[in-house]
Amino acid sequence: MQQNYKKQAAIEAAKKVKPHQIIGLGGGGTIAYLAEELAADIHKAQTLRFVSSSVETENLLVDLGLNVIDAATLTSIDVYFDGCDQLDKELNALKSGGGIHTYEKALACMAKEFILLGDVEKYTDQLNINCLFTVEVVPYAIGFISDTLKKSFDVLHVVVRTDTDKKNISTKRGGALLDVKFQNFPELSALNQIKIWPGIIDHSLFYKMATAAILCGPEGINHLSIS
C-alpha cells in the first residue's frame, strides 16, 4: 500500500473510535498510523484503553503515552483494527505475513467490531493462491501436519518458516510456522476446520470474523460491511 493510502485508511478508521472505548490494534504500517492518529486527539486519547496483538504496536502505544492494558484481564473489547494480506467480498481474510494470527484471532473474537484496513489491491472476489496460508503448529507435529495438508488439499508446497540464519522461527508460544502454497485454493469452510487437527495451534484464515473493512486507493475510500 502506498504510504498516503495507509494514512488515509488510518484517518478514516480513527473516526470509528469513541471516547472511553477499549481499542484493540494489530500490527503493520497502517495500524501504526492509526495509533499516531488516535494519540493526536489528546482529550479523546486520555479516555481510551488499548490492547495489541503485536509487540511492535504495543511498544509504539507506550511511546505515544497511551494507556496499554493486559488483554488477559478482559472478556471483551469494543473495536479491533488490523490489516490483512488479502480479503474477499464476504470479508474473509488471510493474515499470514506477521505470523501472529493466533493473538490476532483472540482479540478479533473478543471485539464487538472487527474492522480490517487495507488498500484496494488487497481486495479480491474470492481468496486465492496469490497469498500464502500459514499454520502455527507445535514443533513435534511439523512433519505430520505438513504431510496431512498435502494429502488433504491441492498443495504446491509446505515450507517451515525460518529466520536469516535458516533456523526455524519460534512464536511466543513456542510454535513453528508452516507456510502453505496451494495450486488451487480450498473451499473456505473446509480449510477453516483444520484447526481441530491435533498439533495445530491456529491458522491464518479469518473466516467469517470481520464485521467491516475500510479500503483506500486512487478512487478514494470504500467502506465494506456484511449485508
Automatic annotation (TrEMBL):
<dbReference type="GO" id="GO:0009052">
    <property type="term" value="P:pentose-phosphate shunt, non-oxidative branch"/>
</dbReference>
<dbReference type="InterPro" id="IPR037171">
    <property type="entry name" value="NagB/RpiA_transferase-like"/>
</dbReference>
<dbReference type="GO" id="GO:0004751">
    <property type="term" value="F:ribose-5-phosphate isomerase activity"/>
</dbReference>
<dbReference type="GO" id="GO:0006014">
    <property type="term" value="P:D-ribose metabolic process"/>
</dbReference>
<dbReference type="GO" id="GO:0005829">
    <property type="term" value="C:cytosol"/>
</dbReference>
<keyword id="KW-0413">Isomerase</keyword>
<protein>
    <recommendedName>
        <fullName>Ribose 5-phosphate isomerase A</fullName>
        <ecNumber>5.3.1.6</ecNumber>
    </recommendedName>
</protein>
<dbReference type="Pfam" id="PF06026">
    <property type="entry name" value="Rib_5-P_isom_A"/>
</dbReference>
<dbReference type="InterPro" id="IPR004788">
    <property type="entry name" value="Ribose5P_isomerase_type_A"/>
</dbReference>
